[in-house]
Write a structure and sequence with these properties.
The protein is an alpha/beta fold. The chain has one domain (1-375): Peroxisomal Thiolase, Chain A, domain 1 (3-Layer(aba) Sandwich), CATH 3.40.47.10. It contains twelve helices and 13 strands. It has helices at 27-31, 39-46, 48-56, 76-91, 115-123, 139-152, 183-187, 247-254, 263-284, 302-307, 309-314, 335-347, and strands at 7-16, 22-23, 60-61, 100-105, 129-134, 158-166, 194-204, 215-223, 232-234, 259-261, 294-297, 355-362, 367-374. β12 and β13 form a beta hairpin. α4 (76-91) packs across α5. The longest helix has 22 residues, at 263-284.
């Protein structure tokens, strides 16, 4: 009998934002004070940092932090659990129905065991295939491709894809070696936020074209960082502790554990690379850009959105098709895409028969990835 590729659909979406929303004027209170940094950094935070917030388009965001103690309230796995349970509830599946669990995150709860197994335990799944993908904003596209391809081949019937972003682990005042902080490291406190998103995927070997609501039409992954310098870095891995009598202490002394970003490179490259990758995905999947009803993109601030208006025009759609959506949740890395998709599904904005292109670019080494779904 001839093998037939299965069609795959999104059966449920879910998102989770920890704790009460934090308005812009309370970010430093919740993350803890930066009072030991060089004066130039503190001046930057009081002046440029304030202006960044005013032009960001973000009114509030969420942190997995106790506002009174500045201690973390969630792990990467527990953030993911909140989103996963909502997605499972929408899909009508119980956790034990999950045959394949994939989680992506830029960091992890422990060197071992993998966060995927920790999430499996939190959900009470006794047995399933699981996989963890270490990536930032492009991680959700990578996870979707791995799950989608496995389900197309009929390996699994039900999969759970999760992305969890715990930015605040790098943003709390107690994490920094403050005397050697830089302006860019401080600026990230005003851009990033915490949250998680999830989708439940189902495969159907008997469905024909147009039979499935929420059908995934295809995925795309690319990395063009082979000859480009990284624009987002965070140490703490093997390369930072390879030598020395006390490599952990040396790493902290040098500030290698700090999360940092090359804002000049991001402002110059992120928009063009995002849209170029998006257009390549649409061409590969034979989707006319004008036929896409909604574009869900990894644009962290309204300022960056406005600066890339010419690329939006190239898509041949109105700004209603490509909206800035992080107003009330902040930018949660790759989780942002699934958070927005969940909101669109639950509000009815994404209507039956409409198509959404979901795409992100990751500045760490210039990877990008996404998928297209017809609701």
């Amino acid at each position: 009998m001839k093998d037939v590729l299965h069609r795959v659909r999104i059966a449920g979406a879910g998102s989770f934002l920890p704790n009460e929303p934090v308005p812009n004027d309370r970010i430093d209170d919740v993350l803890g004070p930066i009072d030991g940094a060089p004066e130039r950094v503190q001046t930057f935070m009081r002046t440029v940092g304030r202006r960044m917030l005013e032009h960001s388009g973000v009114e509030k965001r969420h942190f997995a932090i106790d506002a009174e103690t500045n201690q973390l309230t969630h792990t990467i796995a527990s953030l993911g659990e909140g989103a996963a349970r909502r997605a499972l509830e929408m899909s009508g599946h119980a956790p034990e129905d999950v045959e394949f669990l994939v989680i992506s995150s830029p960091t992890f709860d422990a060197g071992t065991p993998p966060t995927s197994a920790l999430l499996q335990q939190r959900l009470g799944i006794e047995r399933c295939a699981e996989m963890e993908i270490h990536s930032n904003c492009s991680g959700i596209g990578k996870s979707m491709q791995v799950a989608y391809d496995a389900m197309r081949l009929g390996r699994y019937r039900t999969a759970l894809v999760v992305y969890s972003q715990l930015s605040s682990v790098y943003l709390r005042s107690c994490y920094f070696n403050q005397p050697i902080m830089t302006k860019t490291q401080a600026a990230l406190r005003y851009i990033l936020a915490d949250g998680a998103g999830a989708v439940v995927l189902e495969s159907d070997p008997d469905a024909g074209p147009g039979d499935l609501r929420g059908e995934v039409l295809g995925t795309h992954i690319e990395s063009i960082g082979g000859k480009r310098d990284p624009a987002m870095t965070c140490g703490g891995g093997v390369q930072d502790i390879m030598s020395g009598k006390n490599p952990i202490e040396a790493m902290y002394h040098l500030g290698l554990h700090h999360l940092d970003q090359d804002f000049s490179a991001v402002n110059k490259l992120a928009g063009p690379l995002l849209f170029e990758g998006l257009l390549r995905m649409l061409a590969k999947l034979e989707c006319d850009s004008a036929s896409i009803d909604h574009y869900v993109l990894s644009i962290p601030t309204k300022q960056l959105y406005d600066e890339n208006a010419t690329f939006i025009e190239r898509l041949g759609v109105s700004d209603q098709n490509v909206r800035f959506r992080s107003n009330h949740c902040g930018y949660c890395g790759g989780a942002t895409l699934l958070i927005h998709l969940d909101e669109m599904v639950r509000s009815g904005e994404l209507q039956r028969g409409q198509t959404a292109a979901v795409y992100s670019v990751e500045s760490s080494k210039w990877m990008s990835a996404g998928f297209v779904v017809r609701w």
